[in-house]
């Protein structure tokens, strides 16, 4: 249906989180974004989500909504493919809404990382989640005083179940010296990776971006604990640039932020990259598309970064409650139309 005329609708949302989300980016109380619905001439409908993430993307919900308003409610398919590259989240949403929702038959389930709260509540929470069967845990650092957080590291490691591993996510909050202190401490501890120890914020000058990237490469080469990129991958072409630079660590992918996730994933697979599929704190619509792609990933498997639900006050926008494994049936059961209708 390359020249088909499509019906395009969108609904903007502003959804309060059940509990505020605390990271080095600050405290978030709600999520803003857009759901899109596309219907083809045969009456088949699909849904996609455009949820730019403040601190990651230069794209905004206002800009995406402006573009949708301009497109109007009847569009040629080819028009959708000509949107500017700067609207990556919107392009990704419109592409997802036109793709069949197919989840490969295997694997039956994928492991999920448990999300720990920042600060001193983390050890007690880890113990509860270990009891529930989780084996991979993610802890947000760079939120409080580095000395206090470093002081908690051994307590967390001590509470890990047999074979358990910890992921640390600094959300780019550290300076070189703090990052070095942490990475010295992480060596020989069961740390799967340290995510985004430093970052150049979106809109940073080319020189600052280069400096942050050189620092990340230098840290990755100097310490045994792998590093992971997250914020560094949110811009168009970022994944390809890091692949070309031979990044040796993990790639944390919030696929809802990507304009052309299929080609990005193909490039990562060709390179044999280590990929972690992760939530962008989007609704079940964006998450469902990210998860069907995670299921199709041909490479090595790492615990999904989708231990976020329940996330919203509105149940119809959420995915299944966080559990040590996410089953294929859980992904297939995500009702995207119900999420769309909940915003009516
Ligand atoms: Mg992260």
Features:
single chain; 344 residues; alpha/beta; Enolase-like, domain 1; binds magnesium ion
Task: Write out the distinct hetero groups bound to the structure.
Answer: magnesium ion
Count of β-strands: 13
Helix-strand topology string: EEEHEHHEEHEHEHEHEHEHEHEHH
CATH topology of the largest domain: TIM Barrel
Radius of gyration: 20 Å
Provide the low-confidence segments as ranges.
Answer: none
**Whole-number count of domains:** 2
This entry's quaternary arrangement is single chain
Shape: globular
How far apart, in Å, are the first and last alpha carbons?
Answer: 29 Å
The major beta sheet can be summarized as: 7 strands, parallel
Based on the structure given, which CATH architecture of the largest domain is correct? Alpha-Beta Barrel
In what range is the share of β-strand residues? 15-25%
Instruction: Determine the CATH superfamily of the largest domain.
Output: Enolase-like C-terminal domain
CATH top level assignment of the largest domain: Alpha Beta
Which structural category fits the helices and strands? alpha/beta
Mean pLDDT: 95
For the biggest β-sheet, the strand order reads 6-7-8-9-10-11-12
């Amino acid at each position: 249906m390359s020249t088909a005329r499509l019906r395009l609708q969108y609904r903007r949302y502003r959804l309060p989180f059940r509990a505020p989300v605390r990271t080095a980016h600050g405290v978030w109380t709600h999520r803003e974004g857009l759901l899109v619905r596309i219907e083809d001439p045969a009456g088949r409908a699909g849904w996609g989500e455009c949820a730019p993430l403040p601190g990651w993307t230069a794209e905004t919900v206002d800009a995406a909504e402006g573009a949708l308003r301009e497109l109007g409610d009847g569009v040629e398919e080819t028009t959708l493919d000509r949107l500017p590259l700067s609207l990556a989240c919107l392009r990704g949403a419109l592409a997802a809404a036109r793709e069949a929702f197919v989840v490969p038959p295997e694997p039956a389930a994928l492991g999920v990382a448990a999300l720990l709260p920042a600060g001193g509540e983390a050890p007690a929470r880890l113990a509860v989640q270990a009891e529930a069967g989780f084996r991979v845990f993610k802890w947000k650092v760079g939120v409080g005083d580095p000395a206090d957080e470093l002081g908690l590291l051994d307590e967390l490691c001590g509470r890990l179940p047999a074979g358990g591993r910890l992921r640390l996510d600094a959300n780019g909050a550290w300076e070189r010296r703090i990052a070095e202190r942490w990475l010295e401490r992480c060596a020989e501890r069961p740390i799967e990776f340290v995510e985004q120890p430093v970052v150049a914020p979106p809109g940073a000058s080319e020189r600052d971006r280069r400096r942050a990237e050189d620092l990340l490469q230098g840290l990755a080469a100097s310490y045994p604990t792998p590093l992971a990129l997250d914020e560094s991958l949110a811009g168009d072409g970022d994944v390809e640039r890091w692949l070309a630079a031979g990044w040796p660590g993990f790639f944390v992918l919030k696929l809802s932020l990507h304009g052309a996730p299929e080609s990005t994933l193909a490039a990562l697979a060709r390179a044999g990259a280590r990929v972690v599929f992760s939530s962008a704190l989007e609704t079940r619509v964006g998450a469902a598309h990210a998860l069907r792609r995670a299921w199709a990933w041909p490479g090595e498997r790492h615990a999904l970064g989708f231990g976020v639900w329940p996330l919203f006050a509105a149940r119809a926008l959420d995915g299944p409650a966080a559990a040590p494994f996410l089953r294929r049936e859980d992904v297939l059961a995500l009702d995207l139309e119900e999420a769309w209708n909940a915003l009516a």
